[in-house]
Design brief:
By secondary structure, the chain is mainly beta. 3% of the residues lie in helices and 48% in strands. It is built from 2 helices and 45 strands. The protein has a 15-stranded mixed beta sheet that branches. The radius of gyration is 27 Å and the shape is elongated. The two termini are 39 Å apart.
Length: 585
């Protein structure tokens, strides 16, 4: 992924999410899991299970405390009699924040379709017998789109509410706001917010701003509309007109996340094999969405989820094109910066990571759930980020491996300050860079000949950062204490013997042609690569530098590079597609 395009709108980061160390927890047969996380870090997970050929006629609930390897509280919600089937949405866990746990379950068909809320006053240990809160006579019992809890006074309703939005219905997706204890709220055609062939319904609530979005499979366009802020929220006449957002694809899988930092939407665009996700924020004046930067984050259509935690930071989980389960989080609540993508789980052969859902607590820790396999099972995995301190100008940088094996050797004198075994080993020689990354001192040497590293350096003394992706060779990191320009000086390659080798076609000259080193760079910020005969300075671009006995070759892949020929003492400006060879004197 390009630096600066971390989940589309993120640019650089200090928060480095950890690859999950724990194994996935198998919760048993079922589908469409959903998850919520309480302040203590416990996961509250719900899902549906089909029994005797029926569709999800059992709704399951499981609570997993932080650090546990299984459910410490589990409940099954069924009907005693009658043809009452569950929807393919399974069920939803909702946490009001006052110690209660709610389970929302949609059923049909005695009353055509109904929604029930089961309440636990003790945080999920026990539940009551449930209360019918809604009748949905337009889109069946399907609430796979999204369900939210709204406190009393929100969206013009005096009591606390449950908000639901459909996922797939030939009559269109209906929105419904109900209570949590009944009586049931009836739904009419006034609640159908979409066109008939709508899918991937999603809603977000931030303060009193309520937005809905979906994809129309007739034209593959993502549409949206907003509650106007006045009038009955259950009447579509009180919503703004249906408005197109962007042409996407049938796998757009729109997902809205909302919280104290505002409302965000992510969806999938592009053709199969070249799909990627974009992220956009609902603008401050409430009239539409901010433009989306170009993203190259690839993945499988609709297999992703976006979540805004209680502090306002965004978190993203997805299945990438290689079949891996990946995770990325924002660094701060402005969501302008993010950490590099981390692999939670490698590709599997049991159906991949279908319908992933993510929830994160205020401490940054959380859970992801999904379904896979045949028969289908629901699984859960703890997500635990690690945090690196900010890099310091002229003193330290943050290095995180992206692929392969990256090795590190710390500068002389580092052993005197070593506080752990890894630092002592790295001060003595090259050691592998840990998966979570490390803060390392300026003057360290990185070996990226068999891997790729994401490097974060200070951009000033006020905490701003700049970052780049580097691979292909060995280099020493340099940065002045009063100059944020970060220099990567190539090393190794046996080039110190070039001047002693004869010219012509002798065996030694042929051997000299094989001597060399190289470095591939893709950066955002002030970086410079240095070879034997020239330097290349940029403010954000992609380029390659290669050293040999013939000279230092700089090739620009994208953007503009200023090359300084150290032998001829002159400067050349190169643009995309151009190159320059600085020959030895």
């Amino acid at each position: 992924m390009r630096a600066g395009a971390a989940l589309c709108a993120f640019v650089v980061a200090l928060a480095i999410p950890a690859a999950a160390a724990a194994a996935p927890i198998d919760l048993g047969a079922g589908n469409h899991p959903h998850v919520a996380v309480d302040p203590a870090g416990s996961a509250h997970i719900t899902w549906g299970e089909s029994v005797s050929g029926q569709l999800a006629d059992i709704a399951h609930y499981c609570q997993i405390p932080k650090g546990a390897s299984g459910c410490t509280s589990r409940h099954d919600f069924t009907y005693a009699s009658g043809p009452n089937l569950g929807s393919d949405s399974g069920a939803w866990p909702l946490l009001p924040g006052d110690g209660r746990a709610l389970v929302l379950d949609a059923r049909c068909c005695t009353n055509y379709s109904t929604k029930f809320v089961y309440t636990s006053a003790d945080g999920g240990a026990t539940f009551d017998s449930g209360a019918e809160v809604g009748d949905d006579n337009n889109s069946g019992a399907d609430i796979q789109g999204q369900a939210l809890y709204a406190p009393a006074g929100a969206i013009g309703r005096p009591a606390e509410s449950v908000l639901t939005f459909g996922s797939l219905a030939t009559l269109g997706l209906s929105f419904q706001a109900t209570g949590t204890v009944g009586p049931p709220v009836a739904t009419t055609s006034a609640n159908v917010l979409t066109q008939g062939d709508a899918v991937s319904g999603t809603i977000g609530l931030s303060g009193n701003t309520l937005v809905a979005a979906w994809t129309n499979i007739d034209d593959n366009i993502v549409y949206w509309r907003k509650w106007t802020g006045t009038g009955d929220v259950n009447d579509k006449a009180n919503w703004t007109p249906i408005t197109p957002l962007e042409t996407a694809n049938i796998d757009a899988g729109s997902r809205i996340a909302a919280g104290p930092s505002g409302i965000y939407i992510t969806y999938n665009v592009g053709s199969p094999g070249a799909q990627h996700v974009v992220l956009r924020k609902f603008n401050a004046n409430g009239t539409g969405w901010d433009p989306a930067p170009t993203s190259t984050e690839n993945g499988v259509g609709s297999r992703f989820d976006l979540f805004e935690d209680p502090t306002g930071k965004l978190h993203f989980v997805w299945q990438d094109s290689a079949g891996r389960l990946r995770y990325r989080s924002a660094n701060e609540s402005t969501n302008a910066t993010a950490g590099p993508a981390q692999t939670l789980l490698e590709a599997n052969t049991s159906g991949g990571y279908l319908n992933p859902r993510l929830a994160i607590g205020s401490d940054g820790r959380g859970w992801v759930t999904w379904e896979d396999g045949s028969p289908v099972h629901v699984r859960a995995l703890a997500v635990t980020p690690g945090i690196l301190p900010p890099p310091t100008e002229g003193s330290s940088v943050n290095a995180v491996p992206e692929s392969g094996t990256v090795r590190v050797k710390l500068p002389p004198g580092a052993a005197a300050h070593a506080k752990d075994a890894w630092t002592r080993a790295a001060a003595a020689g090259f050691v592998p860079l840990e998966s979570l990354g490390r803060q390392i001192p300026v003057g360290s040497t990185l070996d990226t000949s068999k891997g790729k590293v994401h490097l974060f350096a200070a951009a000033n003394t006020s905490g701003a950062t700049q970052d780049g992706h580097f691979n292909g060779g060995l280099f020493v990191i340099g940065q002045g204490k009063k100059n944020s320009l970060t220099t990567l000086s190539m090393t190794g390659g046996g080039l110190s013997a070039c001047s002693r080798l004869p010219s012509g076609g002798s065996p030694k000259a042929v051997a000299a042609a094989k001597r060399g080193r190289r470095l591939f760079s893709d950066v955002h910020g002030r970086f410079r690569s240095r070879g034997r005969n020239s330097t290349a300075t940029v403010r954000g671009t992609r380029w390659q530098m290669q050293d040999s006995c013939a000279g230092t070759l700089t090739v620009v892949k994208q953007g503009t590079v200023v090359v300084r020929d150290l032998v001829k003492n002159r400067t050349r400006t190169l643009h995309s597609g151009e190159s320059y060879l600085a020959r030895p004197g």
